[in-house]
Specification:
By secondary structure, the chain is α/β, with parallel strands linked by helices. 39% of the residues lie in helices and 13% in strands. It is built from eleven helices and nine strands. The strands form two sheets. Strands 1, 2, 3, 4, 5, 6 and 8 form a seven-stranded mixed β-sheet that branches. A two-stranded parallel ribbon has the order 7-9. A hairpin with a 4-residue loop joins strand 3 and strand 4 (137-142).
Length: 321
């Protein structure tokens, strides 16, 4: 385990890790916007690597391509009702047999905000998890920050955003990248903290003692697990299994990273909410998400300033352009 002693600023390598969560990305965008506005800074300037899954991947792409967190928040508030349109809740019934939403509105919104920019046009190192359904294997989009990364940089940024956020039962798998069947990276790394840490320690060769992580979740539901699950079959587990699996992998990623880096070198912000209070496609709770972002960013701002804003990331120069 790494010491929790703070590394010198000159050797530090900082990671911003952004969880998935659909429209709950409003929380993450609003927290990042609050950092910029409170501290008078550009948040992306303080991070050497940004990792994001699903909605977190869209935010990571936006930051890398020069959009501000306030612009990302605008994206969710303006485009969310179109992407997650659910007239008279008919889509909720459709979800039992088919994807709840079409990929078209999401693809259109991403093209509108990212334009013709490629993934490799990012000014930050990025790692964006997806999943290859055809080959049943993990799939990670990585900017050209290592000599072996010769392909992903050519992909239009909007296609990366679509692939990482194609959540099963919500949005269809996409074949927009090399005809590969890609779905939401949240099925294996909804919290991408360990994905980013492995990238920094492995291909980028950063010692654990130099790494510091700001990890933003989108909500942590507080559930009372029924005792029926103890001996339950498919019927009892059908609603709980996804939540248990995703919560378990997220907690594991956070705890493993904290063990490796030391308590003081990882700050996790993930607001607790009552079970069922939020959903990844319910756009009517935007005000609640913004309010939570205001509360938690206010509470954590001193730690954010003390741990992260004294480091300015050196300019990233892609190996291939």
């Amino acid at each position: 385990m790494s010491s929790s002693k703070s590394p010198p600023e000159s050797t530090r390598f900082q990671i911003l890790a952004l969880d998935g969560g659909g429209i709950k990305g409003i929380f993450s965008a609003a927290v990042l916007a609050a950092i910029e506005e409170d501290l008078g800074t550009t948040v992306a300037d303080h991070f050497d690597l940004v990792a994001g899954t699903s909605t977190g991947g869209i935010i990571a792409l936006a930051l890398g391509l020069g959009l501000s967190p306030r612009q990302v928040l605008e994206f969710y508030l303006l485009e969310g009702p179109v992407i997650f349109s659910n007239p008279v809740r008919l889509r909720s019934l459709r979800q039992y047999l088919h994807c709840k939403f079409s990929a078209g509105p999401l693809a259109t919104a991403l093209q509108k905000y990212f334009g013709a920019k490629r993934f490799g046009d990012s000014s930050k190192r990025l790692v964006i998890p997806a999943y290859n359904l055809g080959d049943d294997d993990v799939y990670i989009f990585r900017t050209p920050h290592h000599k072996n990364l010769r392909r992903d940089y050519k992909v239009p940024a909007w296609k990366v955003g679509l692939a990482t956020s194609a959540a099963p039962t919500y949005v269809p798998a996409t074949r927009c990248v090399d005809n590969v069947r890609l779905i939401d990276g949240g099925v294996w790394a909804n919290n991408p903290t360990m994905v980013a840490l492995v990238e920094a320690f492995g291909p980028l060769g950063m010692p654990l003692s130099a790494i510091r992580v700001l990890s933003l979740g989108t909500s942590d539901e507080i559930n009372d697990r029924s005792r029926r699950l103890d001996v339950g079959g498919f019927w009892q587990w059908k609603k709980a299994v996804v939540d248990v699996v995703m919560r378990g992998q997220s907690l594991a990623a956070t705890n493993q990273a904290r063990f490796l880096l030391g308590e003081g070198n990882l700050l996790r912000i993930n607001p607790p909410v009552p079970a069922g209070a939020l959903a990844l496609d319910v756009v009517g709770r935007a005000d609640d998400l913004i309010a939570r972002a205001a509360h938690f960013s206010r509470r954590e701002m001193p730690a954010i300033q003390a741990r992260f804003t004294d480091h300015t990331a050196p300019e990233f120069t892609p190996i291939y352009q």
